[in-house]
Amino acid sequence: MNQTPLVYIAEDDPEIRALMVGLFRAEGWRAEAAPDARAFWRLVESERPDLALLDVMMPGEDGLALCRRLQANHGSPVIIASARGEAMDRIIGLEVGADAYIVKPFHPRELLAQAKAVLRARQGGAVRAVRPVFHFEGWRLDVGARDLTDPAGQAVILTAGEHDLLMVLLERPRQVLSRDHIMDALRGRAAESYDRSIDIQVSRLRRKLGDDPSAPQLIKTVRNGGYLFAAEVVTE
Hints:
Layout: E1 6-10, H1 14-26, E2 30-34, H2 37-46, E3 51-55, H3 63-73, E4 78-82, H4 87-95, E5 100-103, H5 108-123, E6 133-136, E7 139-142, E8 147-149, E9 155-156, H6 160-170, E10 176-177, H7 179-185, H8 195-209, E11 219-222, E12 226-229, E13 234-235
Parallel strand pairs: 1-2, 1-3, 3-4, 4-5
Antiparallel strand pairs: 6-7, 6-13, 7-8, 8-9, 10-12, 11-12
């Protein structure tokens, strides 16, 4: 198996596309690029990437829709690169499953730093001597395989960010975790470091776990405190 990280880039501007490919290859990555979502998806079907870098405004399917589809089918880490830099644009990017959002124009070193941070988060479990399997309320998370199954045995695909957040909660069950505590536990990730990003991730994770947001039973909101994972967690 090739251990060199593979990044796929969806960018309709040929100059920016060539710049990004050259940047990653100079750092020792494998890098391929596509001018639109259709060509990008052909790349994904040939080999799953370690990271996807998506422009928002592309002809046909835009980067947000592509991110949503990629996360629903593969769960690969995603960085969105866009000229839209308002807070709501960033929030929408996180809501559709992106791990990080970088605003154009950006410094090449900033992009590489974001990419490396996302990969460190994805590979963070590799330094553990044992990769546990967590059980809670009939659910099963195999950390080594990055597989989550529901009580019926059906696979549930998590984004890298959702997986990392779930691990933080499962490692600290029945403890009140402030947003700052959660962000510290997720250190090394490239997601935006503000309270709203944690709320978005929690909301997305609740949906994946079937946890009613109006009366959550698994991930409870503690007023003026943060979040608490309420279920009993068994580790093997």
